[in-house]
Input
Amino acid sequence: MKSVVTHATSFICGLLVGAYFLHEPLERYWQGPTTADTDKQAPVPLPAASARQPSAVAPPEPPASHTEPGAALNGIATLIREGRLPEARELLDAFQDRDLYDTRAMYLSAQIHQQQGDEQAAIRELYRLLEFRPDGTLRQTTERLLARLISSQRKQLKENDDPARLLDFYQMLSTNAPERADYRFHTAQQLLSMGRHHEAILEAQQIEYDPNWGERATALRKQAQRQRKLANTYTTTIPLERVGEHYYAQALLNRRVVLRMLLDTGASISTISPAVASGNNLSLSAEKINLSTANGLIETPLLRNQQLSLGGLEIAQMNLSVVTLHDSIETDGLLGMDYLKHFEFFIDQQTARLHLKPRS
Output
């Protein structure tokens, strides 16, 4: 009990000393703030009703020159339909400077390229658009236009007989759509037709395991390997024109007269038609020779000391007979063994090519 009293006394003394040094009335600790203390506090004024601010700040008004994206693109589409392509391109370029990844803008850009005649640029733009996975309607429209442009461009390049540009086209398609095995197959096929055997082999090998194109790719690879071997064996390759079971080659007579000649390995002497001889003022010798034909033995005039060449391989001082061939065979003459005997040769019936190597 004495200990409790001692502690209580010490606590009260501590409070009295603290109050003395702080100059605060002791009653504050029991009664709270006094009236005088309350009077010292300045009142906080309430804002007038007219000065109150709205709870949300309104967005600033757009500048007068601003146009919503949809409206801007609609205007560009109208210009394209009206054929005002320079204006459309200028506005579209400005739009894409602000939003490079707008897929509808990419589609309009492809349309401008198409109408300006640059179908390959349009195709590249459409492939870029598809990388952004557009919605269903735009995707279907894009794929339809893309298919039309690819078909049109392929047809045009084939008609123009431009193998280098056709190869560039297939390689561009393969780059933009590497998952399309058919584009790689056509690339390999075009490389092979241009005699680039090694590249064709490498391209075909990449799709040999494709379920739809693998079998054709394997056949093409084997064909390319075979042609590469022939190219390493022979020095000159002549493309042939195949008509049914017949093969025709383009030859040059006396370095100026172009002939379409039928290959005939059974003929001992080459021939030309009377129309070729007379039309080019070729002098016939008085000498005549007997030839065995399907119609029996015939006597024909002879042209002596003529120059005949295929693919730059010229044989001089050849003797040619002048023969009227059957009406069903449309040719300027027959290319016989008197020319071919000067070469090691191979007629590749699969690819319609004549491979030649001069005999040493």
Remarks:
- The first strand starts at residue 236 and ends at 239.
- The chain has three domains: 69-157, 162-233, 239-358.
- The chain is about 50% helix and 20% strand.
